[in-house]
Amino acid sequence: MAEPGSAVENSTVARLEYGLRVAILFIVVITLFGLALPTLLANSEVYRYYGQEVAAFVMLVAVTALSAFDIRRRRIFEWLRWLLLATIVAAAVLAVTGVRPEDLSVGEAEWSLGVTGWMVLLLLIDRSWAASLVFLVVLNGINVGQMVATGQDVLRFGIGALLVLAFQVPVIATAIVLRRFAANAAELARREAVLRTAEDVAAHIQEDRKARYAALAGTTVPLLSGLADGSADLGDDQVRTRYAVEAARMRRLFAESDDVPDPLLHELQACLDLAERKGITVQLDTWGERPVPPLAVRRALTEPVVQTLAGARSMARVTLIGEPGLVTVSVVSDSPGTTTTGDSSVTVTNLSEGDRVWVEATWRT
Questions:
Q1: What DSSP line would sit under 214-250, residue for residue?
Q2: Half-sphere exposure of residue 253: CA atoms within 13 angstroms, side-chain side
Q3: Calpha distance 219→204 (Å, rounded)
Q4: Number of CB atoms found within 10 A of residue 88's CB
Q5: pLDDT-based confidence at 4, cuts 50/70/90?
Q6: What number of other Cβ atoms are within 10 A of residue 214's Cβ?
Q7: Percent of the chain scored above 90 by pLDDT?
Q8: CA separation for the pair 304, 342 (Å, rounded)
């Protein structure tokens, strides 16, 4: 499972890199149509192969359009990224080889270097600063290689190339700083999330404890007080039944906090455990698939079982039946005189014959 800070960091980096790519896209468009296109049109007669230059320009326009579309979607496929980078390199080769050797210096007829460098940053700024530098070196190497092959002055070109790189390299450095900033922000967010989670857990535990005490205060506490001061008559069957009911309720209360796939069955088994400890033979059967009732409903469904088993003498049979939108809990026991009632969410039916009693609690979604 990913740490809380990892998602925050990824989101923060994505937003920052998106803004940076949008800014680079504006630079590419301005450089391509504001600088490169006028240069291309103004020097149409001095190029060795003007059609080759036009083809290179069209390729770069296509790369710009596809990159803008990917920025709008905030996602670029890796295969498309590398295809566009290969297209940039191919366009750079076409543009450089179509220029007369004496015009290869930046700022004259050669128009591609400044544009292709920004396009490389547009495609790689969100991936790797090292790859960005490598491609910038490759693009400059194409010009240098052509100048060396044709015997031109590389130093003059180097001065112009350094001026262009002086704008592009700081953008790469900015991306590195932004990623570190995002990592620090994510770490702070992770710590805040951990602290907030701890506070929420503590508040939940406190509320749970209050709810448990409130559930016990009305019935269990008076019984414990009577047991402590000796006022409780344990020889009375009704008194012992009351204690048995409260003991089963406490076991059910403890079971409610367990993380189990079937909480109703788990809490029902907790209610049966005390009766089995008393030597009563208890049989539990389950049938069908059933929805998971809310906590209050589960208490109402198991309450008739608790009260019936508290008065059982030797045997009990509990059945849990589930249907789509319906849950039924029934109990048959030798608990004469036992009568239970439901609430607004659960319907309870009582039938008795001789020393046998049958109780059914039904809940519909």
A1: HHHHTTHHHHHHHHHHT-S-TTSHHHHHHHHHHHHHH
A2: 17
A3: 24
A4: 26
A5: very low
A6: 9
A7: 17
A8: 8
pLDDT for residue 1 is more than 50:
no
Do residues 222 and 291 touch, judged by C-beta distance below 8 A? no
Local structure of 285: helix, strand or coil: strand
Coil, strand or helix at 46: coil
Query: Residue 234 half-sphere exposure, CB side, CA atoms within 13 Å?
Result: 9
Asked whether the beta carbons of 317 and 332 are under 8 A apart, the reply is yes
- 3-state percent helix, strand, coil for the chain, nearest multiple of 5: 65, 10, 20
Name 288's Cβ contacts closer than 8 Å, sequence gap at least 6.
321, 322, 323
pLDDT digits over 84-135, tens only? 999 999 998 998 888 877 776 655 678 888 889 899 888 888 777 888 888 8
- In DSSP terms, which residues pair with 286 in a beta bridge? 320
Task: Give the model's pLDDT for residue 32.
Answer: 92
Query: Pseudo-torsion of CA 80, 84, 86, 92, nearest 10°?
Result: 180
Q: What are the helix (H) ranges across 31-77?
A: 37-42, 50-73
Residue 21 tokens read as 């790519």
Rounded Cα distance between 256 and 149, Å, is: 83
Whether the Cβ atoms of residue 122 and residue 109 lie closer than 8 Å to each other:
no
Structure token pair of residue 37: 């296109």
Give the 3-state secondary structure of residue 151: coil
324: burial class by Cβ within 10 Å (0-12, 13-18, 19+)? exposed
Would you say the pTM of this structure is higher than 0.90? Answer: no
Q: What backbone torsions phi and psi does residue 107 show, to the nearest 5 degrees?
A: 100, -10
Secondary structure class of 82 (helix, strand, coil): helix
CA distances from 86 to 63, 67, 93, 136, 138 (A): 10, 14, 11, 13, 11
Written as one letter, the residue type at 155 is L
> How many residues are recorded in the chain?
365
Tokens of 129: 């600063």
Question: Please, are residues 88 and 58 in contact by the beta-carbon 8 Å criterion?
Answer: no
